[in-house]
Write a structure and sequence with these properties.
By secondary structure, this protein is of the alpha+beta class. It is built from 15 helices and 21 strands. It has three domains: about 180 residues, no CATH class; about 100 residues; about 240 residues, 4-Layer Sandwich (Phosphatase 2c, domain 1), CATH 3.60.40.10. A hairpin with a 4-residue loop joins strand 12 and strand 13. The radius of gyration is 36 Å and the shape is elongated.
């Protein structure tokens, strides 16, 4: 859905301008008849003396220069201008970026003309050149009354192709008007001279490339001399007009040289084009193979990274704890990582981290976290040693500017105590209390610096008592810093409201709701950061007994 992004109000009119993704033009090219071209040329002579032509020239120059820069800066190939009334443009958007450009304010005549013929929206391809814009506006001006009549009365006409999906081919563009939307897509078109060159090559069965012109140059040079100068030279020699014969011989030499040179130039151009095409095909083949190899490597890296994460059907202390998680990287691999390790029959260690950046570089650093965490789990002598090992390994192996935000904790199911330390991770984990009247709280009392910045650190730890029914929720910043197409931030306030309104859900469904909410809020905007969610709920004694009875029954069967 194309939603208006901004509106500005002038003295009389209101306008909206934004960017939309590029569209592919149809391969069907409906050429203008020759009579129509002469008619447009004739009418444009009068158009050049109007104020409208001045606006056309200025807008064509703006689109080729400033408009292209705005669009390419956002990686977008088409500009949309929505005409809502009659007035000035005060604002327009390049992608999702607000741009102020008052140079369009003074083009009232152009905008009023488009509205008069029934156009309320214009989509311009940023590859368009100013000459193409001039020719298209001149065409619309020449046929303005006929276009207005067709739009209002839905009549069939020789301009009917202009209102079809395929569009009318004008000035190497595909131009169409559909439901009041003028769309101008850049379209590559082959010149008639190129068609003639290809036809000439196709007539030779043995050779169908540039060699045809090289071999034909002397033949066609001699043929041109024979046809053009042959009769005159024969007449001069027959009547012994020696001076005329000398002049004709010189003319013959010049004519032969021109024809020969023409064929050699065309052949050289074809030879250069064939060589460029060969090099492009070769480069494309190599690039395709290289891309496929990289994609295969990334897919394998994704599988390896997925194996870094704990299996949800084999989570530790599942008798006492209910686990759920979701991992969705912005690319095939990401920088978010979480892990859970059983330390003994009563304790479990939790690591939830976000490495700087995303993609392959961040994925490599998650491997450092994984190995450090597993190595520490073999002796597990406290969070201080875990933070020291992870910090030292990151400081030693991460590139300059590389770091990780890590939340680490040890939970003792026998005492209900959660000992934790937060090394720069935002957002901080939230506790949903089993008490319906207790608000959602953050674990915010053990803040430390990011890991990997300094070789040594002093860790500050805190403890929190958890009761049966309490739920601990971890999310990465890709969830709360999620942006929609209007660049609105999801924010912690919305996230806490979501947790509060769904506090009674099971952890599995709660994680699903969080992910669905993130996707819904983004409104199909491109995901710019990894999104990871981990939730754990402390089971009640009754639930533990039910699980034990179910397991005992299964063994009895």
């Amino acid at each position: 859905m194309q939603a208006p992004l901004v509106s500005g109000t002038g003295n009389v009119n209101t306008w909206e301008v934004n960017m939309i993704p590029d569209k592919q033009s149809s391969s069907i090219k409906t050429q203008l008849p020759l009579t129509s071209r002469f008619w447009v040329l004739f009418k444009s002579l009068r158009l050049h003396r109007t104020d409208l032509w001045s606006d056309v020239l200025r807008f064509a120059g703006w689109l080729e220069m400033e408009g292209r820069i705005y669009a390419e800066g956002q990686g977008i190939n088409q500009i949309r201008i929505e005409l809502i009334g009659e007035g000035n443009i005060e604002y327009f958007y390049a992608g999702q970026k607000l741009i102020r450009d008052h140079s369009l304010d003074q083009l009232n005549t152009l905008w009023r003309f488009l509205i008069w013929i029934g156009i309320h929206t214009c989509d311009f391809d940023v590859r368009l050149e100013r000459d193409q814009i001039r020719e298209i506006i001149a065409f619309l001006w020449a046929y303005q009354r006929k276009i207005k009549r067709i739009l209002s009365e839905d009549l069939n006409d020789d301009l009917f192709s202009l209102f079809c999906e395929s569009g009318q081919h004008i000035a190497c563009t595909e131009t169409r008007i559909r439901e009041g939307i003028l769309t101008i897509d850049y379209s590559y078109c082959t010149l008639r001279f190129s068609h003639l060159v290809h036809w000439f090559e196709s007539r030779h069965k043995n050779l169908r490339d540039h060699r045809v012109f090289f071999r034909s140059a002397p033949v066609y040079g001699a043929l041109a001399v024979l046809v053009v100068m042959g009769p005159s030279l024969f007449y001069a020699l027959l009547h012994e007009l020696w001076y005329l014969s000398v002049v004709l011989c010189l003319a013959i030499l010049v004519l032969f040289s021109l024809v020969y040179l023409f064929f050699m130039i065309v052949g050289s151009i074809e030879y250069d084009n064939e060589e460029k095409a060969f090099q492009l095909r070769k480069a494309f083949t190599q690039l395709k193979r290289y891309t496929e190899r990289i994609n295969n490597d990334i897919v394998q890296a994704r599988r390896v990274q997925e194996r870094f994460l704990p299996a949800l059907n084999h989570m530790p202390l599942s008798y006492h704890l209910d686990w759920a998680a979701s991992f969705r990287p912005a690319e095939l691999v990401g920088g978010d990582y979480f892990d859970v390790v059983r330390l003994d029959d009563k304790k479990v260690a939790i690591l939830f981290s976000d490495v700087c950046g995303h993609g392959m570089a961040a994925a490599f650093l998650t491997a450092v976290l994984k190995t450090s965490f597993l190595a520490w789990a073999d002796h597990h002598d406290g969070l201080e040693s875990l933070a020291a090992e992870v910090n030292y390994n990151l400081y030693r192996m991460a590139p300059e500017g590389g770091f990780a935000a890590v939340f680490m904790a040890i939970y003792d199911v026998s005492t209900g105590q959660l000992k934790y330390a937060n090394c720069g991770h935002q957002p901080e984990p939230r506790i949903i209390s089993s008490d319906k009247h207790a608000p959602v709280a953050a674990l915010c009392n053990a803040r430390n610096i990011l890991l990997g910045i300094q070789p040594r650190l002093t860790l500050q730890c805190r403890s929190e008592s958890l009761r049966p029914g309490d739920t601990l929720v971890f999310v990465s910043d890709g969830v709360v810093e999620n942006l929609n197409i209007n660049e609105e931030n999801y924010g912690m306030e919305r996230f806490e409201t979501l947790l509060e309104s769904h506090r009674m859900l099971k952890v599995g469904r709660l994680v699903e709701v969080i992910c669905e909410e993130a996707n819904c809020f983004s409104q199909n905007a491109m995901q710019s950061d990894d999104r990871t969610v981990l939730a754990v709920r402390i089971k009640s004694l009754k639930e533990e007994e039910q699980i034990s009875e179910a397991v005992a029954d299964s063994y009895a069967i």
